Amino acid sequence: MAKAIVKTNFRFDGQKSLYEGKVRDVYNIDDRYLVMVVSDRISAFDVVLPKGIPYKGQVLNQIASKFLDATADICPNWKIASPDPMVTVGHRCESFPVEMIVRAYLTGSSWRDYKAGAREICGVPLPDGMREHQRFPHPIVTPTTKAEIGAHDQNISREEIVSSGLVSKEDYDMLEKYALALFERGTKMAAERGLILVDTKYEFGKKDGEIYLIDEIHTPDSSRYFYADGYEERFAKGEQQRQLSKEFVREWLMENGFQGKPGQSVPEMTDEFVASVSDRYIELYEKITGEKFVRDETEDVLSRIENNVKNMLARVR
Q1: Phi, psi (5° rounding) for residue 80?
Q2: Helices 169-192 & 56-70, crossing angle to 10 degrees?
Q3: What's the predicted TM-score (pTM) here?
Q4: What contacts 108, CB < 8 A, 6 or more positions away?
Q5: What is the pLDDT of residue 294?
Q6: d(Cα 225, Cα 63) in Å, to the nearest integer?
Q7: Do 63 and 218 contact (CB within 8 A), yes or no?
């Protein structure tokens, strides 16, 4: 199996800083551009797992690039170009300190909270009697704060965001408008592939006074998909839905006693498990995009990335 890229340490012309996120390494160039290298690291429960997943970075970057292009008419986005299978280069924006989560179904963490007795999410009231994977009457926005590595994102209401000054009312209204419009487009594109876009997250920033969509969009790391075929029958019977997301990784971790809580240890990731996760991500790519995934088999991936980015920056700087 190909080697997973879990760390980069490039030095590009004009480089001001390097931010290492859970999955992405982001290089600040001249305080004007960002080079986002999508590594093969994988995280769950806000913890970076000890082994990388080959081709995962290529999968995520190419899906995000496709959806950024497909939604650019709705909202300006940060992308300039994708010069490498694992890289996007774009505009540097000042990011808002919240993530906009849009949910169309009661599932995942929202279901776990609901089952534990919660009857509202981020200030959005929920009625009694709902069931797992039930569709909401209309998509709801449930923002979270953006946490540092190792910390958990925290649910927060619209009112708390505005009253605390995290985001102005005017900007927040626009973030919500953009998030719902992007989700509607993503829902239609998913339906064309026989999928249901269940929930997703969007991140936004500002540049020259204008709001931009930043980071990834509609990838299996940031989104959850159900197969549309059989959804109604499974829901009627109370059965689990067939999912396209990294929820299967979270489920594997929970089955092995890990939910990111203090004192818990990540279970051993065998080579067989890593290979199965890699295959699953490739399956996700092909189902979500409708395109055959072409594995980039370059022997020295880091050199390839470095050369492609340097050539790109020589054109835009």
Answers
A1: -105, -50
A2: 110
A3: 0.90
A4: 198, 199, 224, 247
A5: 95
A6: 14
A7: yes
